[in-house]
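[audit] Reproducing an earlier prediction to check determinism. Same input, same settings, fresh worker. If the tokens differ from the archived copy the diff job will pick it up downstream; this log only records the rerun itself.
[audit] input (292 residues):
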Amino acid sequence: MKSLLALLALALLVPALLAAPLKPFTAAQLPTQKNLDEASLAVESAMTNGGFEKVGEYSPYPTTQILVFTNETLKDLATASEKGGFGAMLRVSVTDHEGAIQIAYTTPEYWYNAYHLQGDLTSVTEAITKALGKGQAFGPKNGLEPEELREYHYKFGMPYFSDTLLLADHEDYQTALNTVEKGLQNKAGGVSKVYRIDLPDKEETVFGVAMTQKVSSDVFIMKEVDFKEMRSSAHLPYEILVSKGKVYTLPAEFRIAISFPDLSMMGANSFMNIMSAPGDIADALKAVAKGK
């Protein structure tokens, strides 16, 4: 009997031991599409038929379209987690790279752990896999284990997920929301709104934003960091989180690194080439958070 129990325990343990480390993006497996518009329509149809709600879309440059989706489970997971709004969505990228259409999405398990979400993610993973298929995961050469993602920071002295950057502190949630909406409408700091997701039964809202000025711009940053054959376009867009009266973002040293964890510190296509980006991003988003 003891031997049987031991074998059963081993059988349950082996799949976990053999599970591949996680990577930030997963290639979709949809029929070949002729162009960006056709591919984007195919993605939207597949995702909405799969129970997801499209909350926004964004074209940072002519060769790329990013569609953002959520569903009730994602919002519930975010509601149950500290600053969970950062993980309340899935991003799907459609990229024309040298004439080939690439479709990819943010790997649910990767971002679930990176953003410290709590609860059962199974239905989300199953739904997007059914909608878009599950090709090869990609990003860094070597993936990260769930426990590594929950403790992730790029280098010694660099911020963790918990080191959120406070952009502004308002008297209450509604004031904070109104101020951020005003800042986005005014395109303060060159920042505009891509989407908004309100979390149920929680004074928390996440905005996805497009950035266009100086070295905070999405075009400048992606030109430096997204250089591999399979593009990581679903890194975008960046987020602003309103939680009660406070407005937060993730430090660029974390937010960029979690999408590109194997990016070198120095050399061609390195963090050194965007060393001014964290400060510029913070300044641009602070302008939004203060409604300028």
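[audit] rerun output stored. Observation attached for the diff report: The chain has one domain: 18-289.
[audit] end
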